[in-house]
Amino acid sequence: MIVSPHIPVLPSEVIQLAKIGNPTWILDATAGEGGHSSLLLDTFPEANLVMVDRDAVMLERAKKTMEGRGKVFPIRSNFSEIDRECLEEIGCPGLDFVLIDLGVSLYHFLHSGRGFTLKQEEPLDMRLEPQIGNRTAADIVNFSSVLELKRIFQEYGEERWALRIANQIIETRKKKKFTQNQEIVKLVESSIPRKFWPKDTHPATRIFQALRIEVNQELEHAEKGIRNLSGLLQENGIMACISFHSLEDRIVKWTFRDLQASGSFTVLTKKPLIPTDAEIRQNRASRSAKLRGIQKNVPIMCEDEES
């Protein structure tokens, strides 16, 4: 799902959750272009804001959005790698509010030149951290087995034509390796019969989603990040997670339930909060967003029994 720049998704719902804890230390775990960061400091101008993004380009854009604002601490990192030591380095004793927005910025699709888009010719890359040297989308389609490609397309794209598309990729790459995003677009278009194309999206959308998730290990980092950051919350601290498709929402839902089962947290949203019709009209990218929240419990203090 593409998130429009500078238009934070579910703004009033995010603030509704944040106000429960009246936060002093806020962490925007996926800063993007700074939309939610700006919203949070507008609401809590005295708060300290930690902005995190794994993409150095995006973190710079977020910093520009936040120029001249109060106490802002940018950290280039995957949010799943933030730990107590990172916070201690900036003098943070613990977090009162954490926001994890699992959407992908519109910038990546329009301006990054990394092959996220379906619309223009770009290298088949899709890395959110190109400086690290992880496998690219081209590496995956050029060197994965047919069964591995099928698994990726089914598991991360929920694509019913996964095996057929995987077979087409194997046959095509025997003649020429894939290097450009449009080569995958055209292959998917030719692999799925026209009468089975989705009505509202391009037929290659699910395949591109699957490749992006596999390249960046997005679902693994989502669960790891939720668990790690939940451990950095202060008593009564709140974590809010925004997801944009069923795979992400499932991870948020079950990880929150697991944390609640431990006895240390309370799920605040029995059902996910979703955008209003008015918000969807203003920002179409919000239409599939779901927000869930969880709060760290205050420990119950028991007096020692007399011997």
TrEMBL record:
**Protein name, UniProt field:** Ribosomal RNA small subunit methyltransferase H
Compartments (UniProt record): Cytoplasm
> What cellular component GO annotations does this protein have?
cytoplasm
Q: Which organism is it from?
A: Leptospira ryugenii
Q: Which family does it belong to?
A: Belongs to the methyltransferase superfamily. RsmH family.
Q: Which domain of life is it from?
A: Bacteria
Function field? Specifically methylates the N4 position of cytidine in position 1402 (C1402) of 16S rRNA.
Q: Which PANTHER family match?
A: 12S RRNA N4-METHYLCYTIDINE METHYLTRANSFERASE, S-ADENOSYL-METHYLTRANSFERASE MRAW
Which GO terms label this protein's molecular function in UniProt?
rRNA (cytosine-N4-)-methyltransferase activity
Question: Which of this chain's residues are annotated to bind S-adenosyl-L-methionine?
Answer: 34-36, 53, 79, 101, 108
* The reaction(s) this protein catalyses: cytidine(1402) in 16S rRNA + S-adenosyl-L-methionine = N(4)-methylcytidine(1402) in 16S rRNA + S-adenosyl-L-homocysteine + H(+)
| UniProt keyword terms in alphabetical order | Cytoplasm, Methyltransferase, rRNA processing, S-adenosyl-L-methionine, Transferase
Q: Name one GO biological process term.
A: rRNA base methylation
Top enzyme class, one word, equals: transferase
